[in-house]
From TrEMBL:
The keyword Signal applies. SUPFAM superfamilies: (Trans)glycosidases. Keywords: Glycosidase, Hydrolase, Signal. Residues 1-23 form the signal peptide. The lineage of its organism: Eukaryota, Viridiplantae, Streptophyta, Embryophyta, Tracheophyta. Pfam families: Glyco_hydro_17. Belongs to the glycosyl hydrolase 17 family. This is Glucan endo-1,3-beta-glucosidase 14. The keyword Acyltransferase does not apply. One of its GO terms (biological process) is carbohydrate metabolic process. InterPro entries: GH, Glyco_hydro_17, Glyco_hydro_17_plant. Gene3D superfamilies: Glycosidases (3.20.20.80).
Length: 337
């Protein structure tokens, strides 16, 4: 049972080269994954209102959906956008890479904060050798296109890797995974003690990077979460465990703490995920990682409260906002006459 429960823990990491629970989620290190593999999700404009009510200012997409990017124009939300595995071969061509940036980034970046592009997803843990060989050239070409367009200082290029390959779930206790009280583990080389699996995984990645002679790479967690429901054999996928994991995670992040090996560097994560997605393939757990149902109801209570406006209300809110801006403009014009 411990093996099944520990494997439900989900974590992916992003590597950033440093070159060129209150009622709202308030800690600096928290973002959210906004997946859309569903046929019953609210419109992006309503989601923008929900995230504003939650005080979430960092969002990760799996594509570069123009409807989403337009709906968050003139907001303070920072976006990580995704370039899917299916594009990698094309993205090794500088002309096509620049065309993609011109179509998916340039039209929006003046009003919507796009700060990162993830090229591919979990490629190195798959078995597609062609994708593996295209990954780094595609990243280089995308970065080159950003440089040519004067955007390389605004937008980072990275890729996401699963860190599940670091686990031996048969030897990991559920308490260790869920941030609950436990004896912890001691790193025999550094003599650092770890009381949860996520921080141990982050430092394992830092250690591997350091062993390669690099100290200029920052690790961020692009996905971490726990499913509230699963198939009969996914016994750990329960609302209780999901609540424990995410509420304990948020509690730790609100302290702006770092890992044992990097105590001065606050951990940054994107919680997986905002909504349950009813069309995702795979086991039932894949469709039940959301903090919210599509109607805006919390799947379980972790102490955060957001507001998803009704469709009519959301439309009227936008109209009222536009009218207010128009009113201010007219008032300003009258004052100058």
């Amino acid at each position: 049972m411990a093996t099944q429960m520990a494997t439900l823990f989900r974590a992916l990491l992003l590597l950033f080269t440093l070159s060129d629970s209150f009622g709202r989620i308030c800690c600096h290190g928290v973002g959210i994954n906004y997946g859309q593999i569903a046929n019953n999700l609210p419109s992006p404009s309503r989601v923008a209102y929900l995230l504003r009510s939650l005080n979430i200012s960092r969002v990760k997409l799996y594509d570069a959906d123009p409807n989403v990017l337009s709906s968050f124009a003139n907001s303070e939300v920072e976006f990580v956008i995704g370039l899917g595995n299916e594009y990698l071969e094309k993205m090794t061509d500088p002309v096509q890479a620049q065309s993609w940036i011109q179509q998916h980034v340039q039209p929006y970046i003046s009003q919507t904060k796009i700060t990162c592009i993830t090229v591919g997803n979990e490629i190195l843990t798959g078995n597609d050798t062609q994708l593996m060989s295209n990954l780094f050239p595609a990243m280089q070409t995308i970065y080159g296109a950003l440089s040519n367009l004067g955007l390389s200082k605004e937008v980072y290029v990275t890729t996401a890797h699963s860190i599940g390959i670091l686990d031996n779930p048969g030897q990991v206790s559920l308490e260790y995974v869920l941030f609950q009280p436990n004896p912890g583990t001691m790193d025999p080389i550094t003599n650092l003690k770890y009381d949860n699996m996520l921080y141990a995984q982050i430092d394992a990645v830092y250690s591997a990077i350091k062993a390669m002679g690099r100290t200029d790479v920052q690790v961020k967690i692009s996905e971490t979460g726990w499913p509230s429901k699963g198939d009969p054999n996914e016994v750990g996928a329960t609302p209780q465990n999901a609540k424990l994991y995410n509420s304990n995670l948020l509690s730790r992040l609100q302290q702006n703490e770092g890992t044992p090996a990097n105590p001065s560097v606050p951990v940054e994560v994107y919680v997986f995920a905002l909504f349950n997605e009813n069309l995702k393939p795979g086991p039932a757990s894949e469709r039940n990682y959301g903090l919210y149902y599509p109607d805006g109801t919390p799947v379980y209570d972790i102490g955060i409260r957001g507001f998803l406006p009704r469709m009519a209300y959301a439309a009227s809110w936008k109209n009222e906002l536009s009218f207010f801006v128009l009113f201010l403009s007219l008032a300003s014009l009258i004052c100058t006459l």
